[in-house]
Amino acid sequence: MQQANTEQITKKNILGYERIGKLLLKFSLPGIISMLVNSLYNIVDQIFIGQGVGYLGNGATTVIFPLTTIALAFSLLIGDGAASYLSLMLGRQKQEEANKAVAIAIWCTCLMGVLIGAIFIIFLEPLCLLFGATELILPYAKEYGLIIALGMPFSAISVGFAGFIRADGSPNYNMAGLLAGCITNIILDPIFILVFKMGVAGAAIATIIGQAVNAVIYALYIPRLKTVKLSKKVFKESPNAVLKVFKLGLSSFINQALIVIIIGVQNNLLKKYGAQSDYGAEIPMTALGVTMKLFNIIMAVLIGLSSGSQPIWGYNYGSGQRDRVKKTFYYSTAVGTIVMLIAFLIFQIFPYQVVSIFGNDNELYVDFSVKCLKIYLMLLPISAIRMIGGSLLQATGNAMWASFLALSKQVIIQLPAMILLPMLIINGSILGLDGILWAGPISDLLSCLLTIIILLFKGKNLFGVTAVKGEHTEQIDKIDY
Questions:
Q1: Which of 58, 151, 214, 373 is deepest in the core (most CB within 10 A)?
Q2: What integer is the mean pLDDT of 119-129?
Q3: Which residues contact 119 (CB under 8 A, 6 or more apart)?
Q4: How crowded is residue 371: how many other Cβ atoms within 10 Å of its Cβ?
């Protein structure tokens, strides 16, 4: 009787019975495209600013990037947490709790966007200085950052609503919203920067207009929700589940929040050691900033793949079908590794061609940018298992393990390495800037090994006997909230 009930439940949702390969294509491909498109907002700005303003303009976007990452962290805390909670509750057939997940995503995202935007406007100059702005870069950073801060509510909605739209079974709609916003940005960037000569302000205006288009499209989806029913009662009761949603989104938040810390320390170290080198204070910070945004484009593939896998993991873990959880993990890891290997080969073989897209008006700038690509992104191929493994832990309710993994990569490994390696003395001279770059691959290697250890430790719980093949195990209800 138990088996019959389980089979009846899983047939109500394609996540419980459709072929894994087909599900990954359906959910992950739009997710990958969506994340790539989202990453293009920054890259498109970098390209046109580099061509129309120069590397100091790109330096300004590098300074503002941590601020947008802070906002992204809070948006993912809400959006990814709500999406994971929604999928888990749908898998357990707890409709009222699933309804609350979307309600939380809506009101928390809107509130957070307004508050973060206001804080950035009030403290813009000290924040720019905190994240490494030099005297030459500061005016560009303030001009660009003020406009970005004004559009923060649109940015928050664009990220915060995406998760529950995917989990609701509409990844194509999610992709359409992002595409519309990005295309708007791509069209407006050259017009504002190159035609109207608006410089970094033009890039910022184009960005927030694109985000506004995206946000409006996502907001129009709310009346079309398929698996969730919203009401005044749901919104009123939703605060009761806020902590559960936040715990499931904590790993995503930590990942992004720690990136802010890393970038802040990194920018100031680059400014310090750059001033002691032939490159000067501005070039290293700008060059590595471009490298990290290229890295974010590649990581967008893994994030999209992970986000597309999360509903599959969450639903099947919640319904006890561990074999489908395992198969999804293997498929997504294999695809992610192949993509990372291709990117690695491109960056190692054609670094000059890649960095020249962002301007080549300064020989020292191009030289250091090439070095950044070749060293900092040296271990891209092993990034897939770390990112997808952490996402699996998050989607199956192992929030604390996922958060620990994110914390280990950024704080325990990369931050100390970034501070200590530049001080090493080799052949009578300190590593300096090169030490900062080598911190990247070292942290990639050690965090990958840690991910494998954690997955082996949690393997029985994640990939154990399924409910479909026997009795429903008690482990299913032991979600690590």
A1: 214
A2: 97
A3: none
A4: 20
CB 257 within 8 A of CB 34: no
**Residue linked to tokens 């997940």:** 101
pLDDT in tens, 268-293: 999 999 999 999 999 999 899 888 87
Other Cβ atoms less than 10 A from the Cβ of 428: the count is 5
Treating both helix axes as pointing N-terminal to C-terminal, what angle do 363-376 and 282-318 enclose, rounded to 10 degrees? Answer: 30
pTM: 0.76
